[in-house]
Specification:
The chain has 336 residues and is mainly alpha-helical. It is built from 17 helices and 5 strands.
Length: 336
Amino acid sequence: MNLSAEVGALEISQDNVAKCQTASLRKAWWQVINSFAPYLLLWVAMVWALAISFWLMLPLAILAAGFLARIFIIFHDCGHASFFKSKRANNAMGVIAGLLNITPYRHWRWQHALHHGTAGDLDRRGSGDIWTLTVREYIQSTRWRRFAYRLARNPIVLFVIAPLYVFVVHHRFAAASAPKRERQSVRLTNWGLLGITLVMSAMIGFKAFLVIQLTVSAFAGAAGLWLFYIQHQFQGAYWARSGEWDYTAAAIKGSSFYKLPKILQWFTGNIGFHHIHHLSPRIPNYHLERCHDADPFFKTIKPVTLLASLRSLGFRLWDEQRNIFVGFSGLALYRG
């Protein structure tokens, strides 16, 4: 089936997509309860465990990171105004979930909307994307830019160092182009985080709070960045120049169907159905699987399995001529 036929087939799916856009108050609040309550209980357990040993606390922190990642999906849905029917409820929950994820809600929402409007567009990269160069761009880059790019795409930097930097440092500053309200959300979030730090430090000590928070954030951030990476960096992904870029094609072909084991699917809030999410961001995470299963067209989309996704670690550059990701090892062929 060619691309135009695929886009045409999607017209059959619009009724199904529209039905799945309706938020469910019952499902939303149940997800809040089964995400926030265990996370808070794990914090109590981590404080107790850390008083004995860091190594006793560590497995609890890894589990807590799973719940924090799930809370981020709630935060994400609130940013799309899809989690609750009420705009006020989405914004209130978004701010609360944002504080737990040390992320300013309105500023992130603004940046993420730019990502949805430009994903897969080679001429509009840079809005919430993983830094991606084409083969030609890399070859024509300066030596310093090549070094910086190789460093940025190194798995240790990308999934260990970068997540902590993004959440702990980067989110503390507003983008120069951000609107006034979004810039203010960064300042208010920073003040809120300062207040939480002072209260928690008074209760359990600053060192204990810092150790627990940074450990949990490191694991949750690594998982989150991996998910974001694999959602758009997979073999068969869609990238096009602005003149040929199509929103629907970018959603279906440029966003992966990441098929995870059920337990990981639960912790990641069904975000593996990313093709559905990009097609319609107004579908809450608890309806994504239902939307995918309800239409035969979506079942024709090849999933990226957990094992297959590991191959994406070797993807470094986009080859515009062949429409595939390639690694650094074969660059000599392109220079020749």
